[in-house]
Amino acid sequence: MYYPYFLFYILIGVSIGLVVFIWALRNGQFSDQQRARFLALEDDPPVAVKSSGKGGFEIYTLFFLAVAGIVSSFAIIAYALLSR
Fold first, then answer.
1. Which residues contact residue 13 at a Cβ distance below 8 angstroms, ignoring those fewer than 6 apart?
2. Largest Cα–Cα separation, the chain
């Protein structure tokens, strides 16, 4: 029976996704929905936004989450295959 391990894995993924979604809501990522629909119609390229100084931290966090997801995927698959 492999399903408890995969349910736990799915629960972790859903909880990480929920945390990221709540973070995006609190930081105003979805605040300007009316402007977003017209961005494809503009002729001028968008103006570059200044970096907030958190770019390094966010990149390292995303890299860590990606590596943690890959490692946990391999760990769960290896454990499910080797626990027979």
1. 69
2. 60
